[in-house]
Each structure stands twice: as C-alpha cells, then as structure tokens.
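TL;DR need structure tokens for one chain.
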Amino acid sequence: MLVLAVDTSTPAVTAGVVQLEPDSLALAAERVTIDARAHGELLTPHVLDAVQAAGTSLRDLGAIVCGAGPGPFTGLRAGMATAAALGHSLGIPVHPVCSLDAIAAEVVPGEPFLVVTDARRREVYWAEYDAEGKRVGEPAVQSPAELTTTAKAAAGYFAEKTGLRVLTPEYPSPLGLVTAAREALRSGAEPAPMTPLYLRRPDAVEPGARKRVTTP
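>> reply
TL;DR here they are.
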C-alpha cells in the first residue's frame, strides 16, 4: 500500500509517500521545508511534488496519515484540513496520529526519553516514552522548568530546552508518521476521529457582546 504522510504541527512543512509492506516500510519520496509561516502555502505543492517524485499518482494512494499535534492552531489546522479533503476526494481513509509519537517512532530505543516541541509562550509540548518507545501518559503543555521526569534524554526540535541529552529526530518524518499508524493501516481498522491535539485554546477569541449605550 502507498501511504501519503503529512504533518504541520511544527515549523516543518512535511509531506511524503511511504510504501507499506506486511513487514517493512520504505520511503518513496518526501518534501520538507522548515518555515513556520508557510504551512498553508507549501503543503499542497509538497504533496504533489512528493507523489510525482515517487513515480505514482494521488489515485494510487491507499491511505493518508496526518500528524494531529499537539501544535499551534493555525499550522495544525492547515495539515489536518488538507489531509481530510484529500481523503474525502480520493475515497481513502485518513489516520490521525500524535505528532510526538511520530518523532518517538524514529528514536533508537533502549532508555526512557521525552519528545519536546515548541508550544510558544515560553512553553513546550511534551510526552514521555519508555525504553521501548511506548508513550507513558498523555501529551502535555507547560514551561520547560516545570517538567518532572526521570528520563535522561529528549528528542524533538526543542529538546535542548530540557537540559537533557539530545536525541534525533527533531521533526515528524513521513516514515515516523506511518510507523505510528502502521498497526491500524495493516489491520484495516477504522481511523480515529480527526480531532486536533491543541491542548489549549487558540489566542484568537470571539469578541464580547457590545455594551449598551444609555443616555441620561
């Protein structure tokens, strides 16, 4: 099965095509640009370029995997909306995965570790993983100084903020995204709801009701 993988939960605008076999994964093509302000502008061209570079077409795809965050509201929405629209138009399933899990999927196992990305406002999104790469608990958002962990290492592009030993990778990759979803893809399980992991409300809020003006 050919799987399209996309992620916009970090400054990386990521799209790639992965060949999923019964017992292996192989990257066919990928396009990645690090630009936190270009998710909406670059994602669709990256998808089309990756599909072309893989020597295939959108109609040949069997599924889509999309990073569901946690991540900033605007960037994350661009990726999930694009994935949902493509899945609907092509009639193929779209599997959302935690973007931190996609990073963890490519960490060489052997010890507990964290995955840490930028949440802005001097905070980080993070999750803890055991020595086999399985997530322990739910993703959270807080300042690096407030993190409590026994882990000695961290991956993700904000890993250095923790003061722990830095691991790779920095960003979710197409292979990491598909690895995080491979059991559901291989079993043909129904995709989880396309619910973004914002972890906090967006900065923009609806304006309050106008005050009534009274005259004496």
